[in-house]
Amino acid sequence: MSKLNKDVLFLIFEELKEDSKSLFSCLMVNRIWCETVIPILWKNPWCYNINYHNKNSLYFVITSYLSDDVRKSLIRKKILLPPILHQPILFDYLSFCRNFDIDILNAIISIGNSDLHNQSFLQQEIYNLFMRKCPELKYLNISSIKHQIFYFPEAKARLESLCELKCNTSIDSSYFYGLASICQNIQSLNIINKIMKVNHGLVKLIENQRNLKYFELKDDFDDDDFVEDPYKEIFLALSKKADVLYHLIISFQFIEHYEHKIIQNLLPKFRKLQTLIIYGGFIPFSKNQLKMLVHHKLETFNIDYISLNDASTIIENSGRNLKKILLRYYDHEYGFLENYNNIDEDSLNFIRKIYQNCPMIEYLPLLFSSSTEHFVEFEKLLKSCQNLKSLLLIIPNINKEAGEKLLKILIRSAPINLSEIRFFEDFQLSLKNLEEFFKNWKDRPALSILTPVPLYNGENYKRLINKYKNNGIIKDFKCDFEINIYY
């Protein structure tokens, strides 16, 4: 393998671009491998799971690019810099970089000096350095920005190519106005909502985008002081991107009546959505509003605490391409939000809508009772949805007899690709029944099981589980908190 040509090696290493451990190992094989890996590692050197606060080597590499005049000025401010190298470094590392994460870069810069005032001087010089050295920028995280980088001499040429931006609403509007004048091809925008008022610069930035495909907004308010509606203008600007927007993810910290109206009016406009996820509270829909929620390209769907009937209607309107349904039926503080008087009928309707409309479904949570009719419909779903990979089963008050029946259905009819089952309720099986289930799971992908029941941590159960792990039938069997099983 060490004799493969560079082009083949590059394609192989590209597949490992998120696996820093493997890539770091490849550096040590020979010079050709090293020359091929370095550009991949430095394309986005901030994405790896390492502690950047202690990365002296990265700090030394980056600061080694500073000019002599800049170095002298920084040293006079008692900023720690590496000694001047007597021979050039092996690679022009910064020329490979396409991603600029100011949060992580600031952590690295803090190695040079603990004084915030001095750090600001060093930040400005290093940001300027990146703007000169990086041929083009694809990703930018400005969540902790303190310098208006769009004024740097090379900024326009670098920022015009920006595809992905992460930011927060506490950043002064002037920063966003500056970016809006340059960046008009952002495809992915990730916003942390920090303040309870509108950021007009951010609104302008959204308005100026020509091809915004991915939009994510997450509330993370530092305080609850309401100044003005922080959503209306942002969502109004976003609604004008309905022809190009494919992915919409919104996480409300708390949701009020006026936010219900915003979402109810917004969603029907986005006919091309592939991802629709809304976290943070119950949103009621009228029958007329539900009729307008038609998203034929939808692949991933979740609206928190939506009723089973509302979810069924949306699935029926949009379902043929659905792969992931991530509905959260359960509130850990208040219990089931479904009306127990209607849960049998509503859950039967939901199961039927799934197997009638979602032939591509891969990830699915199901809430239903342990009646014979529910088990019959559940088996029909298993037989119809052959792409199913992961099931979350919520069956309130399931007894041992119903549990045994459920396992027999899974053995008999589970799709061949099913490799994960999450049991949300207190679902207890005897050693005998569990072993019978494991025995009959052969010739399938290794199965992962998650359950909140501590019974399975007993020695006899552990012995049985380890036996079938060793046989390759069980990949993993975890007893965990209910909230972890849900997510």
Please describe what this structure looks like.
This is F-box domain-containing protein. It comes from Rhizophagus clarus. It is a single chain. With 487 residues, this protein is α/β, with parallel strands linked by helices. Among the domains are: 1-43; 329-487, Leucine-rich repeat, LRR (right-handed beta-alpha superhelix), CATH 3.80.10.10. The protein is built from 20 helices and 16 strands. The strands form 3 sheets. Strands 1-2-3-4-5-6-7-8-9 form a 9-stranded parallel sheet. The two termini are 40 Å apart.
Largest sheet: spatial strand order: 1-2-3-4-5-6-7-8-9
Straight-line N-to-C gap: 40 Å
What's the story with the biggest beta sheet? Answer: 9 strands, parallel
Alpha-carbon Rg, integer: 27 Å
Q: Kindly state the mean pLDDT as a whole number? A: 87
Give the overall form: globular
Give me the CATH architecture of the domain at 329-487, please: Alpha-Beta Horseshoe
In the predicted model, the low-confidence regions spanning at least 5 consecutive residues are 331-340
CATH class of the domain at 329-487: Alpha Beta
Report the helical percentage: 40-55%
H/I helix tally = 20
What's the CATH H-level homologous superfamily of the domain at 329-487? Ribonuclease Inhibitor
The CATH topology annotation of the domain at 329-487 reads as Leucine-rich repeat, LRR (right-handed beta-alpha superhelix)
In short:
The protein is an alpha/beta fold. The protein is about 40% helix and about 15% strand.
Please give a handful of descriptors for the protein shown:
nine-stranded parallel β-sheet, alpha/beta, 16 strands, 20 helices, five-stranded parallel β-sheet, 487 residues, 40% helix
